[in-house]
Amino acid sequence: MMQVASMHFKERAHVKLNDEVLQGNLRKIKGKFVAKRKASLVELDDFEGTRDAGRAIRQRALDNLDVWLEMFEQNATERGATVLFAQNPAEINKLVLDIATHHGARKIIKSKSMVSEESALDHAIEGAGLKVVETDLGEYILQINDYEPPSHIIGPALHKSKEEVADLFHRVHGTPRKDGIDELCVEARGVLRDHYLNADMGITGGNFFVAETGSVVLVTNEGNATLATTLPKVHVAISGIEKIVPTLEDVATLMRLLPRSATGQSISNYVDILTGPKGRGEYHGAEHMYFIVVDSGRSDVLGSEVREALRCIRCGACMNHCPVYQNVGGHAYGWVYPGPIGSVLTPMYVGLENALDLPQASTLCGQCAVVCPVRIPLPDLLRKLREREFVEDLRPWSERTALRLWARVARYPGLYAWSTRLAVRFLRSRAGSNGMIEKLPLGSGWTSGRAMPAPAGRTFRDLYAERKAAAGKSSP
Ligand code: SF4
Fold it and tell me: How far apart are CA 134 and CA 149, in angstroms?
């Protein structure tokens, strides 16, 4: 399993906020996806209606997941593919290595697969003495940079500048340093071409597994998945159990949402729908096709209070719009999935006790829920995890004691009014002449990176009572 560092979100976020190179790179991309998404939505007559349809499709799949999975297995098998199930990350790696051994594969090319990041599959392949080459440009950049982890689910190397990539290619490829993005792409294409031509096996993720046809749908922009699934003699598609959709018509609806929400494209450059291995007389395609359908914590999520998170179609819109993600980048989250959806899924997949900061890594501004194409109520789910942390005594004792105290006081309106009056006066007394609080005892988190506006010195109740009394006087 990929190493989990989510327990250190706070420290990592501080480091990232002070990383000037990263901050410069993040500033350059900030808002780009947001603007592109917004522009692309106007093409849809009824975006909100399409979102409702997308939500319903994903929910229908999850509500009867066992039925759709069985149907998928049956149809994929009938079309000549082999469907395998992995319960955990170790099983994913074992199944892949067994398939490679069975077919005598020595070199494996990979298209982007977030599930394979969960199991650190590349390391397992290399540990078995085989060669693996990532073919998604972002993933390739990260692989040759000592397997740096991805920082975004659709743009794994978004945190890197063109200059950093130019230096990397010059160092690793031993070629003259290039300046332009086009030149760098041509160079990567040249390096990857040979690998496509002599690889024995191709591994991809799967945006959707289609129950009615037993197909995998791959949505890409670089065409690398098309090559990785048609040139080698073996194709292995790996994805989670939740990626099932009932029909191809459902895929058509979801495809109206996915590229627009992700990159602001009406449709991605390539959409591959692959059903079974190459048939008799067919020229293109792998001779052997495998599906690895992964649970790895997903059944537990399905039975939990955050089950709606499984509707996710991995568009990345929630992170693109998240003020926290925009400022700290993806690596701060410490595991495979960053941003708001990562803050829900990671604690569920790696254990809440190993990712305590993530449900707190949100301002709850609600923007993630506003943009999610399948209407996942992310702030609600984050709140549910916060509640679970409290109930399971996973929060620091000071926080728990403060909340318990607050809950007690809140039961007595008179006492509550008196203590809040005391609290706002105290806060007011901490303000400087500019009305801002620079330092707050026991609340340094609020003031260490910025000044906090001081309250008016009167409570909401006081102000409300005052306004009510004034309204009473002025009415006839
Ligand atoms: S939670 Fe919604 S917005 Fe975020 S990646 Fe998933 S589908 Fe996209």
Answer: 13
